[in-house]
Amino acid sequence: MEDLRVYAVTFNVGTSNPEQDLQDFLSLTKDTKHEKYLPDFYVISLQEVKAQPQNLLLNAFFDDPWTKTCRTLLETRDYIKLKTIRLQGLVMSVYSLRKHLLNIRDIESDYTRTGLSGMWGNKGAVSIRLSIYGCSICFVNAHLSAHDHMLKARIDDYDSILKDQKFHVDAHNEVFFHDYVFWMGDLNFRLMEEYEKTPEELSAMIKRGQLKELLNFDQLKYVMNRGEAFNELEEGEIDFPPTFKFEEDSEVYNFKRRPAWTDRILYKVSPNNYDNIKLKITQLSYKSHPKYVLSDHRPVSSDFIIKVFADYDEEVVQFKDITFWWADDDNMVTYYITKEISETKEDWIGVFKHNFSSLDEYISYEYVYKQSSPIPEPRNPGNASSRGVVKPKEFSIRFNGLGSAPVSGSGLFQLVYFSETEDKVQSVLGVSKPFPLRHKQND
Q1: Which are the contacts of 315, defined by CB distance < 8 A and separation ≥ 6?
Q2: What backbone torsions phi and psi does residue 201 show, to the nearest 5 degrees?
Q3: Residue whose C-alpha is closest to residue 186's, from 222, 228, 145, 216
Q4: What whole-number distance in Å separates Cα of residue 334 and Cα of residue 417?
Q5: Which of 13, 267, 273, 429 could form a disulfide with 317 if both were Cys (CB 3.0 to 4.6 A apart)?
Q6: pLDDT at 59
Q7: Cβ atoms < 10 Å from Cβ of 354
Q8: Quick check: 42 and 303 in contact, CB under 8 A?
Q9: Spatial CA neighbour of 70 closest among 422, 357, 410
Q10: pTM (2 d.p.)
Q11: pLDDT for residue 236
């Protein structure tokens, strides 16, 4: 088994813009030379990202300011954004170090509306699931019903999310049918209503460091202990002050609400899913980030180590080296399939800029089933030594020019082979070596 590090962070941004430096938010340093142990994965969960109806169509195609800012910081450390999913103000993105890309499979997302009986996405959950080195992981970002007296509604939200979230991957079609689960967000659990302390009294207790006493009346711990919700998950010890509700641009609590730990990160491992191997998760940190005063919430992050299979290494599709490509004419590409795969009508090859930072960043693409043709194998009768040896299957595919794609600048490009099902379950099976473009009109 090998260790992978997962960094998760959740923040209700309160419709603000990322006007503060987000390096501490991601536990990064300004001097990248000192970042020797970067996480293998980042999971960034946001709530109340500005989502005016007139911007929803644009937001479906472009990153919101928070995602864009985080991505800019991470791409300088060689991270690739695997997936972003958005439901109104709920946004979650998963990033991976580039070196892991060819061992990630079956990326899929889902969402559940719970606000206004599911008619509007102001509350609910978004999720992203994937497999990495043969182990399955599910990430959930939830924003549950607000206010102290809505405890039953939060429990109902949890049940609705679990019932509604369905994936299209065999044996992993539900949230808890995964080896590892990370559930985070503005879960909105408050202090028990019968704990009759005023906001001013609670603020004084927080200043005196009486956190354990307050946590004895935390609603989330209460429902977990009673088995009413979230009892399948674990949570690390909380030693940071309540993350809600603050005056904006201030470190002072807003006494319109009693302070509470609304922002949480929980986790689960199924240690015995495989014979003779024990999966394990270790939480390295669980903390808030009090310097961020853009919202009435404070961000919360957690660092984990998870165990995955050590001998799982695959590059299913290998591209033949490309000397150069014509930018303004057709191009033929040869690739080899080294293992048996189930090709679908949705498989495609995308053209990306070299060192691309998002799987959504393709410049052009071709569907494999429309353009790809197998290359006949040369006949070699009587060669007994080749019997039983599986030879890579060789294919060629024609790209019908790049059309109006924005490739006028200089630099290198790459091809990426995507396996994709009709249900939009996506895997990256191959990445070509970088190659330059040429323009016939200039030659």
Answers
A1: 102, 338, 429, 430
A2: -65, -40
A3: 145
A4: 12
A5: 429
A6: 46
A7: 13
A8: no
A9: 357
A10: 0.92
A11: 98
Point out which residues pair with 356 in neighbouring strands: none
At 403 the pLDDT is 54
> For residue 226, what are its two tokens?
């009673």
Structure tokens at 57: 């169509």
pLDDT for the residue 410: 59
| The two structure tokens encoding residue 193 | 């209503």
Sort 338 into a burial class: Cβ within 10 Å, 0-12 / 13-18 / 19+.
Answer: middle
Half-sphere exposure of 400 (CA within 13 A, CB side): 6
pLDDT of residue 62: 73
Half-sphere exposure of 250 (CA within 13 A, CB side): 10
- In whole angstroms, what is the distance from residue 139 CA to residue 8 CA? 9
Report the 3 state secondary structure along the chain. Answer: CEEEEEEEEEEECCCCCCCCCCCCCCCCCCCHHHCCCCCCEEEEEEECCCCCHHHHHHHCCCCCHHHHHHHHHHHCCCEEEEEEEEECCEEEEEEEEHHHHHHEEEEEEEEEECHHHHCCCCCEEEEEEEEECCEEEEEEEEECCCCCCCHHHHHHHHHHHHHHCCCCCCCCCCCCCCCEEEEEEECCCCECCCCCCCHHHHHHHHHCCCHHHHHCCEHHHHHHHHCCCCCCCECCCCCCCCCECECCCCCCECCCCCCECCEEEEEEECCCCECCECCCEEEEEEEECCCCCCCCECCEEEEEEEEECCCCCCCCEEECCCCCEECCCCEEEEEEECCCCCCCCCCEEEEEECCCCECCCCCEEEEHHHHEEECCCCCCCCCHHHCCCCCCEEEEEEECCCCCCCCCCCCEEEEEEEEECCCCCEEEEEECCCEEEECHHHC
